[in-house]
Structure prediction request, 292 residues.
Amino acid sequence: MVQPEPPKSLAKVKHIILILSGKGGVGKSSVTTQTALTLVNKGFNVGVLDIDLTGPSLPRMFGVEEKQVHQSVAGWVPVSVYNNNNNTDEKKRGNLSLMSLGFLLGNRNNSVVWRGPKKTAMIRQFLKDVVWNGGSNNVPLDYLLIDTPPGTSDEHIAIAEELRYAQPIDGAIIVTTPQQVATADVRKEINFCKKVNFDILGIVENMSGFICPHCAECTNIFSSGGGKLLSEQLDLTYLGNIPIDPKFVELIELQDNDHDKKLIDLYDDSELKPIMNDIIDKVLAKDCPARF
Ligand SMILES: Nc1ncnc2c1ncn2[C@@H]1O[C@H](COP(=O)(O)OP(=O)(O)OP(=O)(O)O)[C@@H](O)[C@H]1O
Ligand code: SF4
Prediction:
């Protein structure tokens, strides 16, 4: 039998990481956003594919809600969030681009009420028809981050099927919260990864503790440590915990209100930046093989 070719759009993508969560609202999109910023700050070229069709929030988080996706002969050209193709950036950051269903919906308040088959068709198209090679600059992507819908639905099966021929992929980062960690949803997500042969890069416990906006002291308002315990029980890597930082939400609002301000610059002063840096260092330490 002839082995199907991996999607052409992924031919110039070195690493693929999925961001998964058992339930909605645990901060999967925030973790995807911060993972992207952290990798770009380390000089990598990063693409983010937002296929959380339940509420595509990444265009707003990256401050590019009003931008348009262009269709080229090769497929959809993602929106550029940050461009350092000319290497003029003193901080030596990489490039960042984003493809999201949000761009096709037009309005932040337009939600998608598609039924299963239409949703899975859209996801398959998103995985196949986005030109991730930096467009005319032809810069390969170091990392493609895929923000998936919460849970383990038909959409996840579609993602797994499409990515089967794109192996090797690095694997999945599982996001949970202190409240969610003890629930069956997280274990379901982990079992799903095992079933479809996605490696688990590790577990992140988000909203674990609270950073005081006045004194930056971190307090555990809910019990935390469940993510670490779960990782130990299941022999998975614990990547770390991210506290609730009200200032992170403020950064996004700041960018919303002043288009000259960019999250990538504002994030330099965030209390969450060093925390995410440690988390991503643990992911990079896994030294996953590049796809080419
Ligand atoms: N560590 C954090 N500190 C402060 N705010 C956070 C943090 N994590 C998430 N949030 C905020 O919580 C809200 C929900 O987060 P987010 O959209 O990332 O969750 P999600 O799991 O992707 O949700 P959905 O499944 O609905 O897309 C957002 O307003 C986000 O800014
Ligand atoms: S941590 Fe300190 S500064 Fe912050 S709210 Fe509590 S008492 Fe006030």
User: Anything to note?
Assistant: Residues 21, 24-30, 52, 55, 57, 150, 206-207, 242, 244-245, 248-249 surround adenosine-5'-triphosphate (ligand 1) (CB under 6 Å). The mean pLDDT is 89. The chain has one domain: 8-284.
